[in-house]
Amino acid sequence: MAYLLSVNVGSPAPTAHSDFPTTSIDKRPVTGPVAVAVPGPRGTTPTGLRGDSISDVKHHGGPDQAVYAYAREDLDRWEREIGRELPGGVFGENLTTQDLAVTDALIGERWRIGEEVVLEVSAPRIPCRTFAAWLDEAAWIKRFTVRATPGAYLRVVRPGSIRAGDPVEVVHTPAHDVTIGVAFRALTLEPDLLPRLLAADALPEATKDKVRARLRPSGSSASPTP
């Protein structure tokens, strides 16, 4: 059964690689239960986990990015390639999962974690220069993009508390085939996949608006389809 290997939170630290003076990408595993709640709009309450911070609240956080999950198996592949240890939380993820196919998770899929919390898969993580500077690996954004195992942002459907070791069970799968991997490749590498994304109702509205804009004929000023 899939489970949480660690639950990770971070605090602001100085950075010169962001539009903001600090970054909270350095997440560290915590012991004991962690409260999970629906955050406020982006720019207000930036994260769904108590004790966690997001510094760049302009581009991150809000209900559609309440929690970020990354698979331990994908971290292990990166460890072998990079040749250094990558502990849980190092990619800025709140949840480091074990035996869960995060890249194959469907947009709108729901996970029950422990006895209380239900989270919904919303979108893939798109790498940024803060992430690249934090990892300090050559051509990191390109390498991360080509690998196409971006991890998943999640919404909070039912709040509660979680902790390392909690089982993760898929309790709902939507009736489409748009996975985290497909969405990531469409948005970054394979624009021919973009029309497929509109079948995923749970994809964030801001992302769907960007998809519609990219699909409009060049020079068109038509408003996005509601």
TrEMBL record:
Family annotation (PROSITE patterns): MOSC (PS51340)
Domain of life: Bacteria
Residues covered by the MOSC domain: 36-171
Listed InterPro entries: Benzoxazolinone_Detox_Enz, MoCF_Sase_C, Pyrv_Knase-like_insert_dom_sf
GO function terms (MF aspect): catalytic activity; molybdenum ion binding; pyridoxal phosphate binding
PANTHER family on file: PROTEIN YIIM (PTHR30212)
Protein name: Sulfurase
Species for this entry: Dactylosporangium sucinum
